[in-house]
Amino acid sequence: MRLLVLAVLSTALMVVDARLDVLKPMRSQMGLVLTPFYWVADLPVRVWDGITEQFNSRSELLAENEKLKAEALLMQRRLQKLAALTEQNVRLRELLNSAALVDEKVLVSELIGVDPNPFTHRIIIDKGSRDGVFLGQPVLDARGLMGQVVEVMPYSSRVLLLTDTTHSIPVQVNRNGLRAIASGTGNPERLELRHVADTADIKEGDLLVSSGLGQRFPSGYPVATVKEVIHDSGQPFAIVRAVPTAALNRSRYMLLVFSDPRTPEQRASDSAEAQARADQEQAAEAPASTPPAEAPQEAPAAPSGTPAASQGADQ
C-alpha cells in the first residue's frame, strides 16, 4: 500500500514539475549541494587516468630517448668513419705527392701487422714476391725513409725499421755533405750517428739524407733531423742524436722503391742512346717513298774516222 502511495505521489510530482516547473529551484539547490559529492566520487577515476597518462608519457619518452640515443650512436659512428676516411685521404695525398717527387719506380703498400717481439722494430706489409718485392728494397713514407725489406713472402713482406738496433744507414748532412753512419737505438724516436769527429761541422737542426753509399738506399732521401750534439773534450767523437723524419709509429701507407743504381747523368745518356737507336730503327724500317732518280747516260763518242767526228773537229 505504501509502495503504491509513493508511486502515485512520485508520478504526480513528475507531472506537476514537467508542466509548472515548481520544483526547479529545489532541483537547482540539490544540484549545488550534490556537486562536491559528484566530484569526490569521480576523483579516483580522474586520479587513475592521470597516473596512467603519466606512465604512458614516461614510457613514450623513454622509448623516444632510446631511439634518439641509437640514432646519435649511429651518427657518431658515421662521423668517426668519415674522420678516419678523411685522415686516410690526407695520408694518401701526402704519399701521392711524395711519389711524384721520386724518380724511381714505386709501389704503394699498406701496413698489415707489427712484429710482436718488443726488442725488434719490424713491420709487415701487404706486398710480396708476387708484386716484385725483393730483399733489401728501400721503404719510405710521405716524410722520409723508414727502413728496408728483410724477408719476402709471396703475398707479404717484413720490413726492418731504421731504429732497430741492428740497422745502420750511410747518411750525409744536407747542408755541407758531411758523411756519417746513422744507427738504430731501439727507440722509435731516436737515431745515433757513430764516429763523428768532435770537430765536425754538424749542429742541431741539420737534415740528414741518405748518401747512396753501399748502393742499398738511393741518395737524397730524408732520414732524420739532428736533435742534439754533445761535445766532450776528452773524447775524439761527438755524441750526435737525431729524430727520424718518417712517422715510424704512425704511417699506415708506404712506398716500396725500385731503385736505379745509375746516376742521373748515366740515365740521361742511356735515354739519349736509346732514343737514337729507336730513330735509326724507325728510319731503316720505313720504305722509300720514291725510287732514286737515274743519272742521264752520255751518248757514246763517235769514232774519229766517222763524218760526225770530222765535222765536230772542223767546228
Protein model, in words:
The protein is of the alpha+beta class and 315 residues long. The chain has a domain at 106-257: Beta Barrel (Thrombin, subunit H), CATH 2.40.10.340. Helices cover 40% and strands 24% of the residues. The chain contains 4 helices and 12 strands. The strands form 2 sheets. It has a 6-stranded antiparallel β-barrel with strand order 1-2-5-4-3-12. Strands 6-7-8-11-10-9 form a 6-stranded antiparallel β-barrel. The longest helix is centred in the first third of the chain and has 78 residues, at 24-101.
Which percent range describes the beta-strand content? Answer: 15-25%
Spans of at least 5 consecutive residues whose pLDDT stays below 50 are 298-315
Spatial separation of the terminal alpha carbons: 192 Å
Tally of contiguous helical segments: 4
Sheet with most strands: 6 strands, antiparallel, barrel
Shape: elongated
The percent range for helix content is 40-55%
Q: What name does CATH use for the topology of the domain at 106-257?
A: Thrombin, subunit H
CATH-assigned homologous superfamily of the domain at 106-257: Rod shape-determining protein MreC, domain 1
CATH class of the domain at 106-257: Mainly Beta
Structural class: alpha+beta
Count every beta strand, where a strand is a DSSP E run of 2 or more residues.
12
- Encode the helix/strand succession as letters: HHEEEEEEEEEEEEHH
The main sheet orders its strands as 1-2-5-4-3-12
CATH architecture of the domain at 106-257: Beta Barrel
Mean pLDDT: 78
* Alpha carbon gyration radius: 50 Å
